[in-house]
Amino acid sequence: MEKIKNYINGKLVESSSGNYIDNYNPASGKVYSLVPDSNEDDINAAVLAANTAFQSWSKTSKKYRSDLLMRLASKIEEYSEELIIAESRDNGKPEALARLVDIPRASENFRFFATAILHFSSELHDMDGKALNYTLREPIGVAACISPWNLPLYLLTWKIAPALAAGNTVVAKPSEVTPMTAYILSKICAEIDFPPGVLNIVHGIGSKIGDFLTGHEDTPIVSFTGGTQTGRHIAGIASPMFKKISLELGGKNPNIVFADANFDKAVTMAVKAGFSNQGQICLCGSRLFIQDEIYEKFKKALLEKVSKLKVGDPQDDGMDLGAVVSEEHMNKVLSKITQAKKIGGNILTGGNRKLIEGDLLNGYYIEPTVIENLPFDCEVNQEEIFGPVLTLIPFKDEEEVINMANSTKYGLSASIFTENISKGHRVAAAIKSGVVWINTWLLRDLRIPFGGMKQSGVGREGGFKSLQFFTEPKNVCIKI
Ligand code: TXE
Q1: CA 304/CA 6 separation, integer angstroms
Q2: Is the distance from CB of 119 to CB of 463 less than 8 angstroms?
Q3: β-bridge mates for residue 477, sequence order
Q4: How far apart are CA 162 and CA 298, in angstroms?
Q5: Whose Cα sits closest to atom 24 in ligand 1?
Q6: At what angle do helices 62-78 and 80-91 cross, to 10 degrees?
């Protein structure tokens, strides 16, 4: 069975304990590789290597770093088929989705920040000719980059690319549930002789080694994407140490369809927003608000499409949904469906684990599920489920839907479907979330400020915002 290795100081190494944890293939429910069960010593070794490498890496030219990151991007493209297969096997997502989204985005992240750093500039404040202030933007040190399991390589590279481009070094901790593509990335780095210590990847259980990384005195920056609870815990450790922190957390995003929307487009998008990646995207539109006048017609059209979604073997290109990430997560999602039923939720379609005869019988498949008749303020409609579960909520008018949309503790993203442009702007202005789409969902420009309000996070990443986060401004004032 393949043993994944840590990547520390340019070398692929075992964890210092020599212990491993099982890595499951969600499609079959079988263990297929082993993940290093790292400990404090491994984190310390990685931080030491990164801190040492920072002395030289932070002084390299932008062009040098840019060229190296471009090389990494090209290598990801060269190894894309291996990465696609690995991402699907590790996470349960259809290979077709990894081919379309995850792996191209991983190389794109490197290309994007490799070029962005060449155009990054800072401010100058002129005091009417009496003095000049100019602001330097300096790399900070070792960035702790912690990423989740839903978009493993995509989100890992979204953090490490800007951190490295800006001149920091990195200790990354990928999710222990989906470590494989990070491991392949580390093998690629070793192959191209990436400078030792600049990027380090330590695998292991978040709750066991996370605190050593986020609380380490030599990791002044912490960038985290994952659950809100974990984000709160990390903030509790890093904030009193005055670290720079960026938290991209959960969402319970409203998808609002007005009666004047382009009907067919809105139905298609509602299905995509609800079920892409088995509903395991922080931006998924998991609460679908439909205006009264079109509620029944919309529901019928939606159910027709959902009933045609195919769930099964992620390697089969005909599948729309694969498996959810783990048995634990599957049980969590199913328990939310049970809870919905208990409080009077009407399951319109799905609602069960899906068993696939043959080799995949023990895989973690869930039928795409649509539920109605739940109060907008019940727990199921307030807490992130993070699975293929969509709830339908009718609404009367703008005022009512804005109140319901804003009622959760989250504020990550929202979609609004209307052909009335003024209404679109009005509702977008009233929605409390970091990202609002009008007549679309998940249309991403990597330059935009990306992040959440309320308990969906702290800070914004994307484009120059990422480069600002990963640098420290220093103002110099010259008296003329
Ligand atoms: O995430 P965790 P989990 C949500 C989703 C899911 C819930 C829990 O609702 O059901 O979170 O998922 C690392 N210090 N999202 O438990 O624990 C961990 O190893 C430092 C939404 O899998 O937040 C992994 O690398 N790191 C989300 C990463 O944190 C720690 C995507 C994320 O795992 C740590 C994923 C600690 N103390 C889950 N404990 C989104 N919105 O994108 C764990 N980790």
Answers
A1: 47
A2: no
A3: 133
A4: 42
A5: 175
A6: 70
Helix (H, G, I), strand (E, B) or coil at 369: strand
Tell me the domains of the chain and their CATH numbers.
Answer: 2-249+456-479 (3.40.605.10), 254-445 (3.40.309.10)
Ligand 1, closest atom to CA 175?
A: 25
Nearest partner of 271 among 293, 303, 294, judged by Cα: 303
Report which secondary-structure segment, H or E, holds 78. Answer: helix 62-78
What are the residues facing 33 on neighbouring strands?
A: 2, 23
The residue whose CA is least distant from atom 4 of ligand 1 is 227
Q: Ligand 1 atom closest to Cα of 456?
A: 41
User: Do 161 and 113 contact (CB within 8 A), yes or no?
Assistant: yes
How confident is the model over 302-360, as pLDDT tens digits? 999 999 999 999 999 999 999 999 999 999 999 999 999 999 999 999 999 999 999 99
Pocket test for ligand 1, best of 91, 149, 230, 253 (most atoms within 8 A of CB): 230
Residues in Cβ contact with 151 at an 8 Å cutoff, skipping those fewer than 6 apart: 101, 102, 105, 277, 281
Structure tokens at 344: 């009077």
Q: Give the pLDDT confidence of 114-137 residue by residue, as tens digits.
A: 999 999 999 999 999 999 999 999
What distance in Å separates the CA atoms of residue 358 and residue 208, rounded to the nearest whole number? 36
